[in-house]
Write a structure and sequence with these properties.
Blueprint lengths: L7 H9 L28 E3 L1 H7 L2 E6 L10 H14 L10 E5 L3 H13 L2 E7 L4 H9 L3 E5 L10 H13 L8 E3 L6 H18 L6 E4 L5 H10 L7 E7 L5 H5 L32 H4 L7 E5 L1 H15 L5 H17 L4 E6 L10 H5 L10 H5 L2
Parallel strand pairs: 2-10, 3-4, 3-6, 4-5, 7-8, 7-10, 8-9
Antiparallel strand pairs: 1-2
Helix pairs in contact: 3-4, 3-7, 7-8, 11-12
The structure holds 4'-deoxy-4'-aminopyridoxal-5'-phosphate.
Length: 383
Amino acid sequence: VVRDAPTPSAKRRLSLRDNTSRSRSLAPGGPIPEGVEGLIGNTPLFKIKSLSDETGCEILAKAEFLNGAGNSPKDRVALSIIQIAEEDGLISPDSGDTIYEGTVGSTGISLAAICRAKGYLAHICMPDDQAEEKYSLLLKLGAVVDKVRPAPIVDPNHFVNRARSLAEAHTNDPEKRGRGIFADQFETDANWMAHFNGTGPEIYEQTTGRLDAFVTGAGTGGTISGVARYLKPRIERLKVVLADPQGSGLYNRIKFGVMFDPKEREGTRRRHQVDTIVEGIGINRVTRNLEAGRQLIDDAVRVTDAQASAMGRWLVEKDGLFVGSSSAVNCVAATKVARQLGPGHTIVTILCDSGTRHLSKFWAKAGDIGGSNEMTLDAVLTA
Ligand code: PMP
């Protein structure tokens, strides 16, 4: 039984939204996409040759970094949140209304780009320990950026709480221009539904339903829940596996079904206190978006920072692929799942963003490939 079934109005939106993230036509001679919104969704699925050759499985990656507004899967989510808010009459295009969000970067970048295109202002609250290039990018996109000290989710200064209270204050402040809304990516159904309507059906069509495992990390949980909810009822044998990075607290909860204790909203380990180089995935609480698909997740795989770094270098060396930290984690986990399943299986994972967004943090630590050809996949997986 899937908990958190959509409410009747969410169901209505589910059908209304059916084509939103699929409007891009990649076929030559097809309609020309309109604006950056037209460049969101319908991303290619491709085979990672080195990992497939080494494992005897097909390891396929959804190139989500090719979404054309903010260059990550968060384009789908940001567009979905904005479209639903417009439909509900909470904001209107070209009004200068403000969209507030708490984000570690990707959602903020997607919101900032789409806000520019549609005549809104983006106000982004972000922890101050993220890669420097993400702040610069947000400022270049004209967003207001609030850097806050990393704090537990129960703290009013946590970046999500800060964004929520600023949105509330905006609404009550006659001096502020237009209206203010809180995008609320961690808790809104618009998030997992964007993947249920876009990412999931695209993977199904691109593989013609022939896949054995879907493997990805969770930042809000929107991707894993939305894709799982679309694919699981259609592919009986499908295993959905969570890729959990160092410092995250989800592994035991998913792997051993340790029940979520509401008294323990943040869990016992606090990711903000753990020094890690992976950004965008790994949480210590069960968000509404993770809860939406939690019971459909079959297994979890742990990935260390060292394994993610080694995989980042491997993908450059063997495939010419320069990916961000969460994509590297996903590839480690997908390869571990391939090894568990054995040759002949098809595994799909997500490449969320490019390494260019992680130069100053993940790649600064991961290092250069250095021209050595001695790397083995076993060494990557056990680094
Ligand atoms: N990768 C990156 C770079 C991200 O920023 C995020 C979201 N914060 C994710 C992966 C995880 O996606 P989701 O929020 O859907 O779990």
